[in-house]
Amino acid sequence: MRTQLLIDGALVPGGRGVFPTINPATEEPIGAAADGDPDDLDRAIAAARMAFDTSDWGRDTALRVHCLRQLRDELGDEIETLREIVIAEAGAPRMLTYGGQLQTPVDDLAFPADTAERYPWTADLGEAAPLGIATRRTVVREPFGVVGAITPWNFPHQTTFAKLGPALAAGNTVVLKPAPDTPWCAAEVGRIIAEKTDFPPGVVNIVTASDHRIGALLAEDPRVDAVSFTGSTVTGRAVMTAAAATIKKVFLELGGKSAFLVLDDADLGAACAAAARTVTTHAGQGCALTTRLVVPRRRYGDAVDAVVAAMSAIPFGDPSDPKTLCGPLISARQRDRVQSYLDLAVAQGGEFGCGGGRPGWAHRGFYIEPTAIAGLTNDARAAREEIFGPVLVVLAHDGDDDAVRIANDSPYGLSGTVFGADGERAAGVAARLRAGTVNVNGGTWYCADVPFGGYKQSGVGREMGLAGFEEYLETKVVATAVASGTER
Ligand code: NAD
Question: pLDDT tens, 343-389?
């Protein structure tokens, strides 16, 4: 099977031919993806610009709502095809495709469509006489124009639809540049848009490419009004720098090193089991997963034992098996990167409670065992840097203040968890965390109407929810002079 680019409403081959996409569970190629080149990107941006500047897309809310609902329905009709692709291409455990890896982001396209339908696009501030001139003031919310959307491989559909949905609902046109590791997921969305929906030509363009520079060119292009990026903090910094030349709006969802705090009155076994399950979900390849477990010092040994027991029971292996929670990493490069952090942890005095490398049975596939690391402090690199694997660093705290200090002693601020028997006390600790999303005793913040994003180097702006929709809107004020109660 081969995929195609979506440019100006047409499915077209890539200027650089094709590149293979690899199944991370087997290391076998699963097919060929269209390899877009700078000329393809140039045409995609030109088409998006033309669609925004010369069509009614940005003003026709009813058309946008119709197209988005149609897309949601058509994706729903092809959900089984999309499911097999995301399992084969991203190594996504099948069970997660019924939630955040596929079904939920598709269903969640309803939210931006509904929001656009009922959104107050204009607000009348009434008359006033600033500087002595009687004036009627109206605030108008408008789309930015052309949005460049750049996505990672770990949750390809979630990151794609959390951008396409609100950006399009708000009236923008889009050029999407997916990660080279998961081009098929995006290309299938492009095919469905081209073949089965009424999106006007140029409104959505999708350029898959093996070369990361296509993303860099998109970020710096002066015809692009805003860049919405999800990926690593290092690349986010490069995107921000590239976008600075044309002062474009930049929206960033970046990395994390989130803490799971266990207070001294908590059910330690339940907390450690939850932490083990969280960090092994999709082999730890989730930006908001909690990767530092911070437990009371006097219960440290029991906590490590509980984590090891829970990790040993995690269903680990073939992502197509419906019971699997922890599948492979995306690539040999990521597996080697995770392994280098494990080696570094040992070099800095850490010990493996369990795991520590490739499982003996994995002669093929980019697998790393669920791993618990004990014996480190929060200044070790494995405790400070994003590893992006099924790796939990267990740290000790000396009370609530110390636990908060450790959680906040990080360049990141994406997420956090607090477990404690006294709900009020746990909520008080949660309130002190410098992070965009916090769960208390296992609550779930991931939902279409909930804004998601990071503090500090975890990002700029919010995705999803009303805040995520408004990220894609400019604000214009129209001030009309009035005389004797009549506009002139
Ligand atoms: P990455 O930063 O390597 O790549 C992300 C995307 O940026 C890819 O499409 C890539 O081709 C593109 N890119 C690479 N160099 C570029 C450049 N100079 N200019 C513009 N685009 C460029 O990230 P990844 O390895 O694909 O994904 C893993 C990272 O994503 C992790 O750090 C993870 O925490 C983060 N992530 C964050 C969130 C969030 O919402 N905060 C969600 C998912 C993943």
Answer: 999 999 999 999 999 999 999 999 999 999 999 999 999 999 999 99
- The verdict on pTM exceeding 0.90 is yes
User: Which of 207, 210, 221, 232 most suits a substitution to test ligand 1, by most atoms within 8 Å of the C-beta?
Assistant: 232
Q: How far is residue 395 from each of residues 123, 178, 259, 386, 403, measured CA to CA in Å? A: 51, 36, 10, 16, 9
Closest atom of ligand 1 to CA, residue 212? 11
Vertex 94 angle, CA 90 and 95, to 5°: 130
Which candidate, 473, 431, 469, 434, places its Cα nearest to that of 448? 469
Residue 67: closest CA among 49, 82, 55:
55
State pLDDT tens for residues 401-451. Answer: 999 999 999 999 999 999 999 999 999 999 999 999 999 999 999 999 999
Identify the pLDDT of residue 487.
47
Say how far apart CA 279 and CA 284 lie, in whole Å: 5
Residues 319 and 328: their CA atoms lie apart, in Å, by 7
Q: Which of 457, 443, 109 is nearest to 257 (CA)?
A: 457
Residue 232 Cβ inside 6 Å of ligand 1? The answer reads: yes
